[in-house]
Amino acid sequence: MSDEIKNVNEVKDDRPEDALFYNWNTIPNWLCFLRIALIPVFSVLFIKDKFLIAAIIMVVAALTDLFDGKIARKFNQVSNLGKILDPIADKLSQMAIVIILLYKFWNITYFKVLLFMFILKEVLMLAGGALLLSKGLRPSAAEMVGKVSTTVFYVFMIVIIAFGGENAAIKNILPEWLMICMVVISLILTFAALFSYAPGFIKKIKENKKFLDRDE
After folding, report:
1. Residues with Cβ < 8 Å from 149, sequence gap 6 or more?
2. Which residues touch 139 (CB under 8 Å, ≥6 apart)?
3. Which of 24, 118, 152, 164 could form a disulfide with 81 if both were Cys (CB 3.0 to 4.6 A apart)?
4. Whole-angstrom Cα distance, residue 159 to residue 175?
């Protein structure tokens, strides 16, 4: 391979600013750490029937997701770690919420099927990210449709946990058909987000293969 062609699988970075942990100590990254730390807190509170407090914790987690990106862009605190940490925090939070909802609405067949589809999507996303990392590539940052999908997911799931089902945090006022519609809309958006990553994923895999073929 010529000097002009860089092998994307190189472990050593040519520039310090390309390193994963370069300039990692930022407010957005600490907000991501906080969001991850809130996952077991929310889960334990829900299991102990502290539904209102659990819903409030979910709101706090959603707000950290909203503000970390805004702060990163406004104050130029975008980092390589943040580009990976933010989607990881999102995936862990969403998986925890889906598992909690499965526990809460296990007797509703359609609801259960839809939530299992959420899990399938997250498994595919994690598998794709792991494949890129195994090849020395970094997953792409979230696309706009992904951000919209995450926002809608948080809003709808918080509403369902707060107002839906027998174990509602405040009051059981959501009919089953409305909860299912909310989950369907979230599911459509989340799969749209999955497909939006496909072109970038395929492009990176092809470029990596091309570099490896030239190296051989």
Report:
1. 186, 189, 190, 192, 193
2. 83, 84, 87, 128, 129, 132, 133
3. 24
4. 12
One-character DSSP codes across the chain: --TTSPPTT-SS-SSGGGSTTTT---HHHHHHHHHHHHHHHHHHHHHTT-HHHHHHHHHHHHHHHHHHHHHHHHTT---HHHHHHHHHHHHHHHHHHHHHHHHHTTT-HHHHHHHHHHHHHHHHHHHHHHHHHHTT--PPPPPHHHHHHHHHHHHHHHHHHHHBSTT-SS---B-HHHHHHHHHHHHHHHHHHHHHHHHHHHHHHHHHHHHHHHH-
Q: Torsion over CA of 79, 87, 155 and 165, rounded to 10 degrees?
A: -150
What is the tens place of the pLDDT at every residue in 65-119? 888 877 877 777 777 777 778 878 888 888 888 888 888 777 777 778 888 888 8
Q: Is 28 exposed, middle or buried (0-12, 13-18, 19+ CB in 10 A)?
A: buried
pLDDT at 6: 43
φ, ψ for residue 160 (rounded to 5)?
Answer: -65, -45
